[in-house]
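Our preliminary data section would be incomplete without showing what the modeling component actually yields. Below, a chain of 313 amino acids is followed by its predicted structure, encoded as tokens that our downstream tools consume directly.
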Amino acid sequence: MIFVVENDDEGKRLDIFLSEKMNGECTRSFLKTLIQSGQVLVNEKQPQKSGVKLGIGDKIDVDLPEKEAIDVLPENIPIDIVYEDNDLLVINKKQGMIVHPAGKIRSGTLVNALLFHVKDLSGINGKIRPGIVHRIDKDTSGLLVVAKNDFAHLNLQKQIQEKTCKREYVAVALGKFKDCDGEIKTWLERSKKNYEKYVVSPMGQGKFAHTLYKVADYNNGVSLVLFELKTGRTHQIRVHSSYLGHPIVGDKLYGKEESGLEGQLLHAYRIIFKHPRTNKEMSFCCDLPDYFKKYLSKKDLKFDEKLAKSWGS
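Predicted structure:
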């Protein structure tokens, strides 16, 4: 949703301008939340305050969340809670679990499980995605952080946007990489041929995506690769690895199905962020799943934990 400031709106506060343009559909407190969470851009930049004054010709881009009419029910689904306090949780998500309800899927998700196991969750993302600060794909395993209140949610989301939150992944990709390390910078958009897929698009079209990578080992036609997300686009690592000509092993969407695997060998191994309330650095790692280790053993690939914890920006 895009608006352009005209003469009659010069000097108005951003939140008031948006409230008027949306005919009061959104409250100013809701708009403030959108602005603070980075879902409103002024001239392609994130404003610092909802009270910023606007000038003639300013372009306002609002990423308004889709409305969801139904509630999500709690379900007694086991989840691996790595860490928990009054503000947040760190979860080790298993492969095969969807993070939040979408489409016709309304049960069996991480959100259903969280609503059963956790008393309080942030409400910024509404009824469908309470507490969800960032996501990982259904068939990707590993760490993600969940917010228990809006204060923590906004702070953690800002760290992700400002790239001070580090998210590192371990993957196995097909083939031998030309370079042992590097970075991938592209623009990504949803495929017009297959709605489930994302593709590399021309510069300025879609959303900018930036990934760092380092090859940790190579053997028997596959590479053990470390990835660090600098942005967090949907399917980013999977698209970027495939773009280099090395799809993730077991990735049915961007590569090919692998016998004996339920999905791609991609694991969110490490996350580093500052605690929203104490500002203390928090660092978490989670071991590779058994099926991942079994595949590494089969291909005689060596996973070096010291390297995985020391590389990156």
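The first helix runs from residue 14 to 21. The longest strand covers residues 207-219. Preliminary results of this kind motivate Aim 1 of the renewal.
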